[in-house]
Amino acid sequence: MRYIILGGLLAMSCPILLSAQRQAAQSDQQTLVELERTWNAAFYDKDTAFIQNVLADEFIATYDDGSQGDKAKELALAASFNQQVESAIQDDFVVKVYGDAAVVWFSLHLAGPSKGRRLELTLRYVDVFVWRDNRWQCVSSQSTKITAQ
Questions:
Q1: What is the pTM of this model?
Q2: Which of 20, 46, 61, 134 is the most exposed place for a label (fewest CB within 10 A)?
Q3: Which domain holds residue 33?
Q4: Does position 123 have pLDDT exceeding 80, yes or no?
Q5: Is residue 2 part of a domain?
């Protein structure tokens, strides 16, 4: 009789446990989207302390021109950024969490003046994060420039 009651309780609690797992995954997804948005703003604000914390020591970026950079280069780029950005809109987020790793895909639409005319640019990003020291850290980022068709 105890086994039947225990089995019934376990069967009833399975949907609750699955729901809790889905909520945790959603929370990680929301956290990563917010982290991407804050990282983007930190770049334009030259907030290298925030960026230092987000990037893993082994961070590698592949930029839209095919060149690569490490954590030091990314921090230097943020510190020396001096272009006017009228708008920087991130959208089309897709976040997949795989245990202690996550992949974030998104678009970044930039607009602002460049060489006397208005420039509009769209980039697609793929960022890979790992969970360590109770926070998400980016180990890899790749951007691709989307050309008008």
A1: 0.80
A2: 134
A3: 24-146
A4: yes
A5: no
